[in-house]
Amino acid sequence: MAKRKAENRSFLDKWEAEYPVCLVCGVNVAVSKEYNIRRHYETKHHDKYKDLDMTQRSQKVEEMKRSLVSQQNMFKKATSQSEAAVKASYIVAAEIAKSARPFNEGEFMKKCMMKVCDLVCPEKKQAFSNVSLSRNTVADRTCDLATNLYDQLMEKGKYFVAFSLAVEESCDASDTAQLSVFIRGVDSNLCVTEELLGFKSMHGTTTGKEIFEEVSKCVTEIKLPWDKLVGLTTDGAPAMCCKKSGLVGMVREKMREENCAGELTVYHCIIHQEALCAKALKMEHVMTTVTQVVNFIRAKGLNHRQFKSFLEECGSEYADGTYHTEVRWLSRGKVLNRCFELREEICQFLETKGKDTAELREQKFLCELAFLCDISSHLDALNLQLQGRGRIITDMYAAVRAFKTKLCLWENQMLQGNPCHFPCCQSIKAQISTAVFPCAQFAEKLSVLAAEFSRRFADFDAQKCKFELLSNPFAVDMENAPTNIQMELIELQCNDTLKSKYDAVGAAQFPRFIPDTMPQLRTQAAQMLSMFGSTYLCEQLFSSMKMTKTTHRRRLTDEHLRSILRISSAQSLSPDIDELASKKRCQVSGLGTSD
Length: 595
Hints:
Shape: extended
Radius of gyration: 34 Å
Number of helices: 30
Structural class: alpha/beta
Strand content: 5-15%
Helix content: 55-70%
Mean pLDDT: 84
Largest sheet: 5 strands, mixed
């Protein structure tokens, strides 16, 4: 065996002209040695080609090679068309999943493609017909795409130096509890991967223990070590944040069992807390009155039609009023703004319906409505700043700190009778006497709101020093920094080259340029980059879930729902369609038939 390996046998190009074995009869020679080739040629083909000189032999070889290549190309073309059809079916299945459409949309799309093909490129009809888009095929393709994404995430997870989880639970259209778990991992190059780790259907109770078991399965199945878990962000529900029987307490207990050296940092979603802070204003009576007015106009079709006609007759800037939905973060501000802008038209319309509008015309109510409208607009602006994928927790914390500073400024200005940042209040104040406008009352509410922000975001304030290490390491007081990074921090702050790089690329990109000679700083940066500031991704996924599993698709299986949501939520990863297509064989399905 060693002798054969050492011989390194291969077919020599010169044998093509001297002994055209394969080109003549297609027989495969067992061992590609010169002796074997010569014996085969002299035994089988010598008499036929013995009269040809070398030039004629070369011409004959080229002719035979062209014939062989032509045959091979015919098979290659068929294979290429087959692979293209499979790839096309995967691409269409991915788009169907992203748009939350049912699987049988593939059959409708194929009918449309065939009709377009008949008009635009009839010669390509067979190629389009080969694309399999039956309901079963689209369902299978969707599962394949989701599995491919999960495999990619598992491969990336091998290189995570730190990761955090965002966990939230909600119910679908069939009242099944769905648990979404997102992961944000950072590798040694400080590249962030933010993807759906698991989406679990919970058909029984949803206690802290059961939620922990599902989260633990997600972490175990992807083979992530618990000692690299640095952060956990939840929606603040008791089953999530209870220190003993909740998810947080059980995760910490699991990390102690695994002898994890690091400490788990737990956050209550910033966006949820921002929305809860607004309740400290205690102005529900204003919102209740506005909601009743809107419901009277919008609940009955006749009232709604007449109101829209009334606005059109008045030449109003707005064509309609808007509903208030409690679960939508920005709904309240939009409803209040619309009602404030249409306050006169609303009163006139209600009077035509015989409704009492005395409360709506009271100066006190108008002042409170204006204030609530303005402060809700400011809160909505903060909410929008905190939303979005890939948000770094330090930036989110900076936005909250800025808002707290604004509250202090607004409080002082309101005490001075100068609501310059409250346009609705300015409008009302111009219509009534300055003495009637309750500046002191509104200043007190701003003070209460600022205190509520400080109370609810105390856990973020406790991490201020760590946040500064990521957002601006050159301004951190080294005496207040953790002892394990103090030496590296001094070297960093004294390095003018790194300071110039920080000024050039900004805080978000700078951690990637921290040299490997500062491993503690890189580790600290990786941990901070992996932190979730909110459960925004979970909320966004649940919105997609409600569009996917509607009352008309309640029979959608857990596996299919999970696959659809994994595809639609993918951001850092994309399915490897070439790899998937290489493992499949084209199966042509007719229109309206199943594979």
